[in-house]
């Protein structure tokens, strides 16, 4: 999961719920001082939330982009439903398209879509369903198909645990499996408390359904290439969910821009936000 470096919104941003044809979604909405040169919709990954992008908001606003980070349905502060069917990938893709329509205002410039990790699979499904609202797609630490086999074993354990244990028990079990550098006591107290509360806020049906998607996702890279939409593939130098060479190959198949953020792993958005924001803003400016 991403661990945000701060929970404090910059002055350029505000938190609220955006109304769409498919319900309300909690967002962080950051705006530049003048008219935006473009708008970016940021979709978080598995066990994530809009807070994962909080460190990107100020630098992207300074670059001229309105940036809207969203909690998907059943994630953290967005309402969810109590059936796994509500979180099928096509349902989540339709949510993204509804969010895009709600954001597409005349003075907002072109709309750029970004998905982190699982969010990359969801945003890809949205684009394959309807690329028209978007000027570009960025896959941030997200690969061509199912996650790496080593991670699949951990995800299957999580699905089993969520089916038989209380979420608080699952959280404690997950933390015990983390490496020392990822342990809660390595984070500031307010961040550790937030990570726990976010986990407890997220619908278990959402976690189970999206976990299964990461295990079964087919390779849809050729379908994405046929849309003709400009794509940016961004990652850290190491990634445990999708090996970096796999993302290199995906970028070549898409004729995509490729950025590797030095000093980052699976969450460049949180680990090296200034470098990541610079790469994103440069790409969005170039594709216009």
From TrEMBL:
Keyword terms of this UniProt record: Hydrolase
InterPro entries xrefs: AB_hydrolase (IPR050471), AB_hydrolase_1 (IPR000073), AB_hydrolase_fold (IPR029058)
Q: Does the keyword Cytoplasm apply?
A: no
Membrane spanning stretches: none
Which superkingdom does the taxonomy of this entry point to? Answer: Bacteria
Under Gene Ontology molecular function, one entry of this record is: triacylglycerol lipase activity
Q: Where is the AB hydrolase-1 domain?
A: 41-278
* Gene3D superfamilies xref list: alpha/beta hydrolase (3.40.50.1820)
Hydrolase among the record's keywords?
yes
PANTHER family for this protein: AB HYDROLASE-1 DOMAIN-CONTAINING PROTEIN, HYDROLASE, ALPHA/BETA FOLD FAMILY PROTEIN
Protein name as it appears in the record: Hydrolase
